[in-house]
Amino acid sequence: MLNLVLFGPPGAGKGTQSQKLIDKYQLVHISTGDLFRAHIKNQTALGKKVSQLIADGELVPDKITIDMLEEEIDKNPDAKGFVFDGFPRTIPQAAELDKFLASKGSEIAGVIALDVDKDELVKRVALRQKETGRLDDQAEKSQKRIDEYFNKIILVLPYYDEQKKLTKINGIGEIEVIFNQLCEVIDTY
């Protein structure tokens, strides 16, 4: 099973590249952000619980996120693998993901971090907000999410580096060039 973590700050291109990887490798995409937005849209109990947190640019507590993620994995028992986008965000989440996958006889094959500088991220997120109207892409909230990534979330990378599973790729450039670099890395797993 090919399980990948696509890592990077808001606006790094995780969603764009995830879709291309899904098509090529026939993987199931699990984006915690997309799952939360779907729950909010459908006004599920979980959606109501996390709606305000996301609208304020806050992180959803680990327990809720992990439970939702495990439920989504269990919905896809025949998957060839998963692309985790936006998860894990903390070392406890990474450890829980490892533990859960091990219980299924699987593991994370690799973690690919898309490196993009803050100025480029701000431009990309502002453009995306104009195109989609996502509440979490509004300037003040998106800046908070970008800062959260560089101050806290990025601290997960050494966890995977110690496991020799981390590769960093420049996330600035042509989408196809970045995709080809991703594939070169993935094809070594």
Q: Features of this protein?
A:
189 residues, five-stranded parallel beta sheet, 5 strands, 56% helix
Q: Can you characterise this structure?
A:
There is one protein chain. By secondary structure, this protein is an alpha/beta fold. Helices cover 56% and strands 14% of the residues. The protein contains nine helices and five strands. The chain is globular. The chain starts with a strand and ends with a helix.
SSE topology string:
EHEHHHEHEHHHEH
Give the spatial strand order of the biggest sheet: 2-3-1-4-5
Structural class: alpha/beta
Main sheet overview:
5 strands, parallel
Residue runs with pLDDT of under 50 for 5 or more positions: none
Shape: globular
Strand content: 5-15%
Count of helical regions: 9
Mean pLDDT rating? 88
Distance between the termini: 10 Å
Radius of gyration, in Å, reads 16 Å
Number of strands: 5
Q: What is the percent of helical residues?
A: 55-70%
Mind sketching the topology for me?
Blueprint: E1 2-7, H1 14-25, E2 28-31, H2 32-41, H3 45-55, H4 62-74, E3 81-85, H5 91-103, E4 110-115, H6 118-132, H7 139-151, H8 157-162, E5 166-170, H9 175-186
Parallel strand pairs: 1-3, 1-4, 2-3, 4-5
Helix pairs in contact: 1-9, 2-3, 6-7
Short account of what is shown:
With 189 residues, the protein is of the alpha/beta class. 56% of the residues lie in helices and 14% in strands.
